[in-house]
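Appendix B. Chain record.
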Amino acid sequence: MDLAPLVDTLTRSRRTVVVTGAGMGLASGIATFRGTDAGAVWAHDVMEMGTNRYFQANPVGSWRWYRSRFASLQGSKPNAGHHAVAALERWQATRGAEFLLVTQNIDTLHGQAGSERMCEVHGRADRVRCSRVTCTHGAPRGTLPAAAFDWAAFDAAPADDTSPRCPGCGSRIRAHVLWFDEYYTEHADYQFERAIRGMKQAEAVLFVGTSFSVGITAAALDTRADKWLIDPGDAEAPLGVRVLKAAQEEALPALVAALPVS
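Structure tokens predicted for this chain:
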């Protein structure tokens, strides 16, 4: 694993963006979406279940699916790669340089590992929000902690009358996730404009665990920054992206250890 070229890129960069996808969670026991692992969500009915259209037609069915999905995240802990990304952020700060993490993941593991300069552009599994667009009840940015609601009645007997409601207006609450038939700009908490601004200004962009199949990665590719991908497989990277073929949970800690001390 030749880290020297990537170390050189990061050392020269004064504005670094890291973009992470579902592959970050594999070492924490979380299934990917489009990966080849046995539990990959993409292999099932996510394109139908993960939509606002489905929620509007069958809110109980939508929440049953998400409650099952979110239950699979319980007990997951940040892996060595998550901690390394947080360490990379701290290293940039000691140099007076800028850093931004743009993650597609809703599992909150980056935050648990200590990442702070972060845009969670697909939402968070531990937050919910009112389904009425004009209702902004909750903080920060109109979201509420999922743990603040009593889910016992719904989990025991999923039905409309057991579904938790917004304490502000009484409407149904929804998962705080970006659905496939929605846009990044539909909710302020996704911080899409901040993410785009950081990418446009970046001198280095490091992709980790992503299949380049979502809009945010397309935006990150459309920059003049030096671009790298850490990936253990044989997938062909987009044009202009250099590849470090390695498992992220091994490569990222080694990368951080190789960075020069200020």
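Further analysis of this model is presented in Appendix C.
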